[in-house]
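writing this on my phone so excuse typos. first protein, seq and then structure
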Amino acid sequence: AFCQFMMEWRRFPVNKAKLWTGLLALFLSGILMGAAGAWIMMERKAADSATPDKKRAPGVIVERLNRELELNEIQKKRITEIVSQTQDEILELRRRMRPEMDRIIQDSRKRMKEELTPQQQKRLDELFERLEERRAKREAGTRGRHRSLDSRE
């Protein structure tokens, strides 16, 4: 079947330069799409690792350190404790900073709206609502693990 296809294909006049250009364009678009996909995945992974709602974050970090540094069991245990404590301290800092961050965001939002048409203002409000919903969901996932931090709010 393939041989028959090749014999039929040869009957059609094809500009080899156009054919190779098309194949090269296809190949390069595949590379670009792959690179874009990899970039998006790296961005998401970076955002996920920076997000405090990852219950397994200390374990992931310690496993990475173990692969790089060949930690013994005592080191793994102590470093896990250090990473967990650090994560809790960072969450507490975020909790304390949240009101000031919210004020800055609201001020920025107000100044942006002054530059927009009423239709654009409405769309901006919708965008901020979606972002706030996502943040609330992320933080709701955190609350189960870090209940002691939340009780101080």
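second protein below, same order as before
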Amino acid sequence: MKKVQIDSKQSSSLRDRLGFPSIVGRRRLVAAVTIDAIGSGMFMPFAVLYFVRHAHLSAATVGACLSIAAVCALGLGMPIGGAIDRFGPRATLVVTNVACAVAFAAFPWAVSSWSVVAVLTVVATADTIYWAAHAAFVSLVAEEAEQARWFALERWLRLIGNVFGVTLGFVLASVFHSGMTVIVLGNAVSYLVAAQMLRSTHTRPSAPTFASSDADVQAESPQGYKRVFSDSTFLLFMLIQFLLIPSVLAMTLLIPLYLATAPGGGAWLAGLALTLNMVLGIVCQPPAARLAERISATRLLQIAAGLWIASFVLFGLLGGSRLALVTVLALASVAYAAAEVCGGVAGGPLLTRLSPEGLRGRYMTVNQVAWNAAKVVSPLLLVGTLSSNRLLPLGSLCVLCGVAVLLLQHLNHRISEPGN
């Protein structure tokens, strides 16, 4: 018994040093997040290539199908998002996972542009609702004081799971003659397994229950989305998110292309940046989670915005010998990864804090739709301006982050938080 107590204390001490929460009674949620990350990682590199080869469509056509599906998801997300408040986050998560499983299982039969749009729209809409419901579900699983640690743990698990999934995907694609079909069907199975894990995950004893009918929901929150869009503090946070999202997406949309075409750079430099970002993202999670417990979320987001500005300035200074390139790239990557982690750890708990329980599903859905809208706009800002001036997109990101810092100061005065 004494040895068990000592091992438990050592485990708790290590967990505290890492900045992770206790997973006792919540291991199935951890398993669901990991399985989802592995499945997504398997398919990510082949999203366009699969339909190009299997449906014999051009890359431009597949790109257009993805864009149409994204726009459809924007339109469908909010009407469906109210289901989170009616049926609860857990039920919504299970349904979205099953919907994705069915859609991925139908991929082999999607051989025309309209059928590709159909299955991708199901996936994109389910994905929008999934992330909104998942953020609400974390608030049912973890106490408010522990939520920053949960978001850090989940981000850490997703990074590791994606790395493993990408590796597994390339192995399957290389070993099997129909490797990409195996990946697609394997991803469908992963959604079903994750759905079962989520269905049986325990929530905290004090977690609220959810209404069982539209009438009950309306009795609790008669204004629905009207109240969400009249909440000026929440809308201010949405504006701040919208300004920062292009920076979050810069590592996938802008930086690799910027580095590949930089004087003295090339594909090797872009690959090095992506690798550094992934490794540093995993390493930086624990200290960011501990920092989130000592300062307010708005302050941490300001730090993130400042670090993004520093990273973009450093990326703009790249040049010279190969040693100079690698040195500046390493410094820029550290700043970027730290910003990404701080932003991720701070954003989730702050969003939960600003979302009242009775309407949390709608609040989370609006947030996710805003994210998706920013994903539509960001390629135009980041890639579209690169051809006219190499430093223009980096300068634009610095301006957006600077405005976000000022608005966060205003938000900090409008909300009451520990640490202010």
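The chain has 17 helices and no strands. thats all i got for now
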